[in-house]
Amino acid sequence: MENLTTDFDSVPYGLLALKELFKGEIKQEQDIYILTIGQQFGVGEIRYTNLQKGLKAFDFNLTATNNIEFPINSFAAASLQFFYCLEGNCYHQFENGDEIHPIDQFQTAVVHSNDGLQNRISISDGQRLILNIIFVDKNEYFDKFSKESNQFGKKLQGLLGHIGNKPRHFHSGNYSLKIAEQLKLLIDIEYTNEISELLSQKGRYYLILAKQIEKFCLEIDNNTNTSGLLKNELKMISEVSDYIKKHPEIQHSIKTLCLESGLSPAKLQEGFKFMFERTVSDFVRNVRLEKSEKLIKTTDLTISEIVYSVGLTSRSYFCKIFKKKYYYSPKEYKSKNTPKSIKDSIS
User: Is 236:228 a contact under the CB 8 Å cutoff?
Assistant: First the structure.
């Protein structure tokens, strides 16, 4: 995103309002705008992505050097807002409302207010915040799908029916690491060209929205915590999963991971099943397979070298589990996905 945006007629109104508030600069490429905030307010940026008509996302990634407060309903009229806080915390409040709603790390929230009813977000001085907000226009987006008879349409009908004609609504959701994983992929995603990056990012937002809707409907039906884990336990599970991804070559075990995290074996397994729908050993195996698949496609390492680089010792076992996941042997997969100049190096 090299060029500074000069045609402000094309910039979404909500982002222009934030530009005035934060005294920042905006850059644009295709459907993505990035606002770098002014130094007097902090360090960081606000990213706007236009997903489709009636659907857009704002991502806040900043560290505030002053207390910051800004309105959010001006971003999209007659909309539902799905919040997810990946890092830090913030506070939501309706106009003329006494109650302040905290949104903590790993927590979701669903917000709705009628046109003309102000609601705002505040961030405390010194706070690092990574916050995702997906705005869904009730008329342009929901009406299209809520009339369908499939399962997704029924969930939307339930969501809209729960909110109904309430002038304002705030739903404080439970903690979720499944959404955290999708947002991490959005932040850390690497691609070889900008078009594939944009398409993949938009796909991640749709996945996040689907998980938000599913989670909201589950919570209003059951009114229960879907994980049973405390916030600090969820945070530790997230850190352990990141550690495994960063070091797939280590011989991870329940014992060593428990020592690393301070969690009991039961909590560790519970957290991984909730977050990834996998046991710890299944998660480690999958990380190694995904790392090996990337190495096969992007390097000239031999299959044997790849096996050892991801922490496995048996080439035959690796070939077996690789084929089960990707439907081809490692050698066949490399042949199909790499240039001819690299194929000859396979042993």
Answer: no
CA distance 303 to 319: 9
- Least Cα distance to 114 among 58, 145, 76 occurs for 76
Within the chain, where are the H helices? 13-22, 143-146, 151-163, 177-188, 194-222, 231-246, 254-261, 265-276, 280-298, 303-309, 315-326, 330-337, 340-343
Both structure tokens of 145: 């799908």
Q: Are 33 and 11 in contact (CB under 8 A)?
A: yes
Q: Which two tokens stand for residue 146?
A: 């809520």
pTM score:
0.73
Q: Which residues of the chain have pLDDT under 50?
A: 1-6, 190-193, 225, 341-343, 345-347
The pLDDT, as a whole number, for residue 152 is 61
State the pLDDT at residue 157. Answer: 67
Please answer whether residues 201 and 194 qualify as being in contact, where contact means their C-beta atoms are separated by less than 8 angstroms: no
Contacts of residue 198, defined as CB under 8 A and 6 or more positions apart, other chains included, come to 30, 31, 32
State residue 215's pLDDT score. Answer: 85
Q: Match 């194929």 to its residue by tokens.
A: 343
Among residues 38, 95, 102, 35, which one has the least CA distance to residue 71?
95
Displacement of CA 347 from its chain's centroid (Å): 39
